[in-house]
Specification:
Helix content is 43%, strand content 21%. The protein has two domains: 9-162, Ribosomal Protein S5, domain 2, CATH 3.30.230.10; 171-297, GHMP kinase, C-terminal domain (Alpha-Beta Plaits, 2-Layer Sandwich). With 299 residues, it is an alpha+beta fold. The structure holds (R)-mevalonate.
Length: 299
């Protein structure tokens, strides 16, 4: 995943993700299921640029690099330019900040000759994630480092394992058209839950029950049941106040266009939704795109 290049450049990559089930509740002790995307972020540290400016890191990639040096316990590299490439839409709930953090850790590790395990990379990247949003559960960084379809529990202890689906999930990602702010969404819900624990705790438990039932449906290849669970999870996220009118409309349109189920994915408050196709995901993505929602299949 990371490689020192002969030119003096070192690079690393991280994958984007969709949360299939369990976002937000995962911050409050429930499990989640996450799927790594084929889209992601690649970071290259291009060295030996004499005129590269010093001073305080300002851009997100520069701040991520400075923090990566801190968490890896190595000196912040001097005279390098951080080049970021990728095909992942930013700030729409698809894990772009975690993918950037993982890619940065891997690039810096390659730069200084370290080879951390994927679990260590995820742990370091989660520390960097705190720069972008206060209290990450670690699910995004785990997905960005490992990819694949995973069960995740924040713990402690943090635990994750692959989920075996008999066939790839025919999921489509659809963008609601507005960006979101993960930190604000997570902290807003945390404050609401603190103020009324008796109302929110049962909802988080109900989401946890859906995640467990969703895993059973995935492993059994029961797509109609999984679709039902996705839509129900959306209803509970909406009840928690993290949906938007656009995301609700997008879910309705996806169901009208024949999806077996749909929900917002990630922190909500804007961003993206996922929909489970009953057939070819490319066809559902096309129908949603024709209805005005930019969409693409997960694979
Ligand atoms: C964001 O992709 C998922 C959230 O559950 C936050 C987190 O787990 O860190 C909303």
């Amino acid at each position: 995943m990371s490689s020192p290049a002969a030119s003096g450049a070192a690079s690393g990559s991280g994958t984007g993700k969709v949360i299939v089930l369990g976002e937000h509740a995962v911050v409050h002790g429930e499990p989640a299921i996450v799927l790594g995307l084929s889209r992601g972020v690649r970071v290259t540290l291009v060295s030996a640029v004499p005129e590269s400016p010093g001073g305080q890191p300002e851009s997100a990639p520069e701040r991520a690099l400075a923090k990566a040096a801190q968490v890896l316990g190595v000196p912040a590299p001097k005279g390098v330019v951080v080049r970021v490439e990728g095909d992942l839409p930013v700030a729409v709930g698809l894990g772009s900040s975690a993918a950037l953090s993982v890619a940065t850790v891997r690039a810096l590790a390659a730069h200084v000759g370290l080879s951390p395990s994927d679990d260590d990379v995820a742990g370091f990247a989660n520390e960097i994630e705190r720069l972008f949003h206060g209290t990450p559960s670690g699910v995004d960084a785990t997905a960005a480092a490992h990819g694949g379809l995973r069960w995740f529990e924040a713990g402690p202890p943090r635990r994750h394992e692959p989920v075996a689906a008999p066939a790839p999930l025919p999921l489509v990602v659809a963008l609601s058209g507005s960006r979101h702010d993960t930190g604000r969404s997570v902290l807003g819900l945390r404050d609401r839950a603190r103020a009324a624990r008796e109302i929110y705790a049962p909802v988080f438990s109900a989401i946890g029950a859906l995640v467990r039932a969703g895993r059973t449906a995935i492993e059994a290849g029961d797509a109609p049941r999984l679709g039902e669970i996705l839509t129900m999870n959306h209803g509970l996220l909406r009840a928690c106040g993290v949906s938007t009118p656009e995301l609700d409309r997008l879910v309705d349109v996806a169901l009208r266009e024949g999806a077996l189920g749909a929900k917002l994915t990630g922190a909500g408050g804007g961003g993206a939704a996922i929909a489970l196709a009953s057939g070819e995901p490319g066809e559902l993505a096309e129908r949603l795109s024709r209805s005005g929602w930019e969409s693409f299949p997960v694979a």
